[in-house]
Design brief:
Length: about 260
Amino acid sequence: MRNVLAKRIIPCLDVKDGRVVKGVNFVNLRDAGDPVELAAIYDQEGADELVFLDISASVEGRATMVEVVKKTAGEITIPFTVGGGISHVDDMKRILRAGADKIGMNTAAVKNPQLISEGARKFGSQCIVVAIDARFNEAWGEWEVYTHGGRTPSGLRALDWAKEAEKLGAGEILLTSMDADGTKDGFDIRLTRAVSDLVTIPIIASGGAGTKDHFYNVFTEGKADAGLAATIFHYKEIAIPDLKQHLKSRGVEIR
């Protein structure tokens, strides 16, 4: 049985070479600012958590990211998750030691599922977030997991993988609909609901937020525990205090 928790609003910062970028359907990236400055603004505005994704997790990217994490940890009071290029328990340790509260994993977890268990054993399940980038596969009639920043189909069924991730010790799932990402047409309710109905750990819905009611829909119909967005927050299309007020006025319990 799922615990019904107060819902969370989470801005996502895609970091490339030390800058925040944003695209549509994972491509056409444009600059959206300095990650540490943006993080501090979101903290002040009442975001419940932050997610940093290092989307250029090359050797330089990883070193850049540790610095970004350290600086951010000094500026904010809310929890933040860091993902991208984490493939060993040592990587997790380095990022957590730099000040992150949770680790996000996608590609590395698909390649080596035991990494989820190892991380959960060493740091606790609450630190382990499995990120699932899913796209609808017409031939299967269900969703497929993609890795490498949405570039590589894995052959894994998203619903099976979500169940497996929970069993291995993930504390949370960050579920991104690649079909909806950056479109602003709304979260993928069918996908979010399907995963929420299967697992008992919290689901962070990601991809497609464009209006305040999109959050309302994903919390009520999609049963998500948190709503994550980037574009609408970075470009000031929706302010977090207004979004929270709107959700409260519609009867949603918000952090």
